[in-house]
TrEMBL record:
This is Elongator complex protein 2. PANTHER family: ELONGATOR COMPLEX PROTEIN 2. Pfam families: WD40. The lineage of its organism: Eukaryota, Discoba, Euglenozoa, Euglenida, Spirocuta. Belongs to the WD repeat ELP2 family. It comes from Eutreptiella gymnastica. The keyword Oxidoreductase does not apply.
């Protein structure tokens, strides 16, 4: 009996699927961009090769994104994004992202005071910071409660509290960055 080879996911080149409207360079050496594909993406140089890769999708929005600004901060990374709906949103990079950034690129950015991770609550449209494991327990408790329509939050919607160990796969970019 011949056993079929199993398919293994591999990282692939990725990027915006529509025009880029704004781009900022972080002084440490990585860049972020926003696009009319309604995403904010983080691109960084790989530590182990001369290539760049998509490290994170910092924001997936319901409107075309038009502007991006790097905010001055004494620690971590903070950005502000604007969309066609005319609302500016501010994001602080979670420490898990900063750990992944350092591990995969060698770029060290202080994570002091940064939230541990972020999660989108049931029926919510924006990520909320998870500052510590107490906040994570609250997210887990809310996941057990029923939400509109009798559905429950799936485990896939729960935040993944692991720093990346290799170039992220598309599934990781969509769910965990």
């Amino acid at each position: 009996v011949r056993k079929e080879a199993e398919w293994e996911p591999v990282p692939v080149p990725s990027g915006h699927s529509a025009p880029v409207c704004d781009l900022v360079w972080h002084p440490s050496g990585f860049c972020m961009s926003v696009s009319t594909d309604q995403t904010t993406r983080v691109l960084a140089p790989a530590k182990s090769s001369p290539h760049w890769f998509e490290l994170a999708r910092a924001q997936i929005h319901g409107h075309d994104l038009t502007s991006l600004a790097l905010l001055p901060t004494a620690h971590g990374v903070s950005i502000a994004t604007g969309a066609e709906e005319k609302v500016v949103r501010v994001f602080d990079a979670p420490s898990l992202f900063l750990t992944s950034l350092q591990h995969l690129t060698g770029i060290a950015v202080s994570a002091e005071g940064a939230p541990l991770a972020a999660a989108c609550p049931a029926l919510g449209l924006s990520n909320k910071p998870i500052m510590d494991h107490t906040d994570l327990n609250a997210v887990a408790l809310n996941a057990d409660r029923e939400i509109a329509g009798g559905k429950e939050m799936s485990e896939a919607a729960m935040p993944v509290l692991l720093a990346l160990q290799s170039t992220p796969l598309e599934e990781q970019l969509l769910q965990s960055t």
